[in-house]
Design a protein that fits this description.
The structure holds two protein chains of two kinds. By secondary structure, chain A is α/β, with parallel strands linked by helices. Chain A has a single domain, classed as P-loop containing nucleotide triphosphate hydrolases (Rossmann fold), CATH 3.40.50. Chain A has helices at residues 43-51, 75-81, 98-112, 120-133, 151-165, 181-193, 210-213, 234-242, 245-251, and strands at 5-14, 17-27, 32-36, 57-65, 68-69, 83-86, 93-97, 144-145, 169-173, 200-205, 218-223, 226-231. In chain A, helix 2 (75-81) crosses helix 3. Chain A is globular and about 55 Å long. In chain B, 26% of the residues lie in helices and 36% in strands. Chain B is globular and about 70 Å long. Chain B has two domains: 74-384, no CATH class; 385-439, no CATH class. In chain B, helix 2 packs antiparallel against helix 6, helix 7 (386-394) crosses helix 8 and helix 8 (399-416) packs antiparallel against helix 9. The chains are: A alpha/beta, B alpha/beta. Chain A binds chain B through residues 51-54, 74-76, 78-80, 84-85, 87, 90-91, 93-96, 101, 104-106, 108-109, 112, 144, 161, 165, and chain B through 385-388, 390-399, 401-402, 405-406, 408-410, 412-413. The structure holds adenosine-5'-diphosphate and magnesium ion. Chain A: Belongs to the ABC transporter superfamily. Ycf16 family. Chain A: Pfam families: ABC_tran.
Amino acid sequence: MTALLEVKDLQVRVEDREILHGLTMTVNGGEVHAIMGPNGSGKSTLSHVIAGKPGYEVTGGEILFKGEDLLEMEPDERAAKGVFLAFQYPVEIPGVTTMNFLRTAVNAQRKARGESEYLVPDFLRKVREVAASLNIPMDMLKRGVNVGFSGGEKKRNEVLQMALFQPSLCILDEMDSGLDIDALRVAADGVNALRSPDRAMVVITHYQRLLNYIVPDHVHVMSKGRVVKSGGKELALELEESGYAQYEDAAA
Amino acid sequence: MNVALAKTTTGAVLDGTFAAARGRLPGVGTVAETRQQAFDDFARTGLPTRRIEEWKYTDLRNLLRDVAPLAPAPDQAALAQAAKLVETLGTGDTQKLVIVDGVFAAGLSDLTSGGGVTVHALSAMLDDATSATRADLLRSRIVDPMIALNAAFATDGMLIDIADDAAPARPLHIVHVATRPSVAAFTRSLVRIGNRARVTLVESFVATESAKAYQAHDAVVIWIGDDSDLQHVRVMEDAGDAANIATAIVTVGARTKFNTFSLTTGGGVSRYQSFITLAGVDSELSTNSVHLLRDKQHGDCTFVIEHAAPNCLSRELFRAVLDDRAHSVFQGRINVHQIAQKTDGKMMSRALLLSDEAEIDNKPELEIFADDVQCGHGATIGALDDSLLFYLRARGLPEKAAQALLIQAFVGEALESIVNDDLRDVAISAAERWLESRA
Ligand SMILES: Nc1ncnc2c1ncn2[C@@H]1O[C@H](COP(=O)(O)OP(=O)(O)O)[C@@H](O)[C@H]1O
Ligand SMILES: [Mg+2]
């Protein structure tokens, strides 16, 4: 069976500095992977390269998504094929209402897949249903995308999009940063509701706490641009005890 | 030396045009004399060059070279084409007053009077020998070569009177249609609004397929009384190789609201210059101007605002989205007269450059003779934000669609200033047409 995501010996440079030095990981449908690691270890870089953010130069290795060369695709093609990145820092877009943005995005993805556009009533019903489950008031969706949203609201807005787009690979970059425990629980519940045998999640986090709510099947420790250790969910607890120091030495 | 020569040459060529056109221009006697005077005023400078301060960034001698010959009156075929185009405007239920190639087209227009509104064709008024004041229709308080040229050649336009307390249900809608290549149309309209009136005035500039490289020269003179409200929307979609040189002269009474919106997507060369005088106390002026330009289009938006009475508010917002080698000019001048205490006047220009070769010139000017005022201006120039673009693309929007959404957001605030839903939709559709044709 083809893996959902295969990252093989990935090397990435930013402005002439190598950030990822040969990173390898395989994610199958239905699995939840956690990537943990100290700040600056390259977690966000990996997520950006998978999503197709410009400014990164891939100098070696490859990324396959459902067996296809992901690096050859534009970011919007990747989205249409089922890659979703929940941003660590979702941007604010004044002047574009969240509702308009959601509809435009959903329909762009459907069009790219050769599907018909959502009918407005169907779309509204779907948004209302998902928003309610995430405690997002409909009024919030009439505002500019993320404009004036709290940290927790921004993250819930990311989960809302995930639920609407139904991607097959969800990468969550530091979803827990800046969230209090209640906000975290709502967002995590939203993510858990999306777990399914044909969908995989890659949960990037600095802290073990999030993994109490989104329980991973596999945990990878990243340090200085490499995966330095992989294991089961118990690895996360171990890290909580011992900290990252040992891995930083291992990578050095 | 060269300058003088160029001027003489242009003047001489045009002299011929004026002589040839004279027979077709409505109005004899005082009207003809006023035209001759206006032409002489124009001929002293000819087309303005960058040496005239007000025209520094829009050198018409260079951009236009010459004034095109007067457009012939539309024949049946032209009128039929124009009629078809007017049907597709989608401006909702407006009272349409259609001008084709500079001539008022009664057959395409709705001259219904009533409810305090009276409408006449300007040509008929100029020809009305019984009127002692008919020559005033061509006069104005602003000294400017292009306004003078307009007065000399104006063939037609509208005279609209709106009585005290009138509140016409439908917006009044002047539609300019160009159907012929390489000719010039000169139009002039006057709108007199009484006290306590509420009016919406729309102006559209459009062209049929066959109209190329033509010139539209227009002037609109508006008086608004006291305690009134005028909502004004102007959408200019002239052909990409045409010229549109237009003036608005507006006098605003006391406790009156004047909200004016203009969108420019058309015209290879365009200038829309507005001279607005706040002549009565406690009035509010809001202007929202949008340029969406590409290729080698040159667009000029010029405002001269006279705060001539105390306690008035003015807000000018200018937005330009410039692609390719487009060039946009925003000149905003606020003159605060000595009597105009408690003036609150602000202007803001924001430009979004989509290409390295696009260009904007901003010239804000404040001249303040009162001591208790608040005035200010600001300008920003920038490109689309890469992090926003990536966010949208990561959500599935192709590059052009992501850009389009951000451009819409950029001009959205200005479009939102249009109160009437139908008219806002018209402006939004025009902006969307521009965005779609980028792809
Ligand atoms: N755009 C950039 N320009 C220069 N250095 C960068 C850029 N993005 C990331 N880096 C560097 O790459 C390293 C990894 O960063 P990042 O992927 O954000 O780590 P993490 O998400 O694990 O905290 C850091 O040393 C950071 O400074
Ligand atoms: Mg990070």
